[in-house]
Amino acid sequence: MTVENQETAQVNPKLKQELGVRYGIMLSIFGIILGVVSQNISGMMPKFGVGIAGLIITIVFFVMGAKAYKKANGGMAKFGDVFAIMAIMAVISTVISTVFSYIYVMFIDPGSVDRQIQDTIGMLEGFGTPEAAIDEAIIEMEKMKDPAGYAVTLLKGAAGGIIFYFIIGAIVSAIVKKEEKPV
């Protein structure tokens, strides 16, 4: 057994879960901050900027989690191990952020739905969207004022978010992995 294999064998078997939870919580905190900022600014371009910032922060935390694993594992990290950490981060971050979003919109700032509706109307009008389509969008968004309707909206968004996280996680995992070369 080589020195590198011995180091790999001595890695804490729960390290992936620990790193996934730790970095997932940190990612969710930044996600919550960006979400609150996004809820309280108007205009689609500033919100787009917040979305880009969220993507960058996600990538940074994914890389940080992968690097922490590689460091603890003697510089080695298999794709599957790194992806597992990122998958845990994705689920933890999504659950925490989704619960916070529900509490925020339902109890802290119920007026944020009305601001979202107004921003969406402005954007759709700016694109020259037909009035009938705008009316349909408003009807759908009005459902977000109802606790059950908003919960459904959040769950759909969470499912899409996890898929997005998994895609980004797979890309980052492929880039940062470092596997032993066969002898």
Residue-averaged pLDDT: 89
- Oligomerization state: single chain
The number of distinct helices, counting runs of at least 4 residues, comes to: 7
Shape: elongated
Approximate helicity band: over 70%
How many individual β-strands? 0
Q: Main β-sheet: number of strands, strand sense, barrel status?
A: none
Written as H for each helix and E for each strand, in order along the chain, the element string is HHHHHHH
**How much β-strand is present in the residues?**
under 5%
User: End-to-end span in angstroms?
Assistant: 12 Å
State the domain count: 1
Uncertain residue ranges: 1-9
Task: List the defining traits of the structure above.
183 residues; mainly alpha
In short:
Helix content is 81%, strand content 0%.
Describe the protein in words.
- The chain has helices at residues 3-9, 15-39, 44-72, 79-108, 112-126, 131-142, 147-176.
- It is mostly helical and 183 residues long.
- The chain has one domain.
In terms of topology, how is this protein built?
Layout: H1 3-9, H2 15-39, H3 44-72, H4 79-108, H5 112-126, H6 131-142, H7 147-176
